[in-house]
Amino acid sequence: QVKLVESGGGLAQPGGSLRLSCAASGRIVVINAMGWYRQAPGKERELVATISSTGRTNYADSVKGRFTISRDNADNTRYLQMTSLKPEDTAVYYCNSRGLYLDTISRLEYDVWGQGTQVTVSS
To answer: What is the SS3 assignment for 83?
Structure first.
């Protein structure tokens, strides 16, 4: 089993910054991709940013130039640095990870989500 633990988030003023962290634990063999999605009230969950095992990043157009996703491979942690925050960034942010983990005798694919963390941007 693979588990994700998110931290960070909270309340920020417009123009402010926050940093989210997501730590993956378990018998992970390889993390193929890890990233952040968000869901605002009444809206569908949408991609925010992802980073692949090779370090390739992908961002939603709405956050390009403001958010930065990074990784610390040493402890399977990914970070989302959010700057120039806007009220429309308000949402529950979910971490997602996909890859391979070691089962009893074989490697299996996993695709797991974190519990979500609230980000509120308001003055």
So the answer is: coil
Say how far apart CA 96 and CA 50 lie, in whole Å: 9
Instruction: Dig out the tokens for 83 from the structure.
Output: 């700057």
What is the per-residue pLDDT across 13-51, written as a single tens digit (0 to 9) for each? 999 999 999 999 999 999 999 999 999 999 999 999 999
Neighbours of 98 (CB within 10 A): 18
**What distances in angstroms separate CA 105 from CA 13, 75, 110, one per listed residue?**
50, 24, 15
Burial (CB count <10 Å: 0-12, 13-18, 19+), residue 109: exposed
What CA–CA distances, in Å, run from 66 to 16, 19, 47, 95, 112? 11, 12, 15, 18, 26
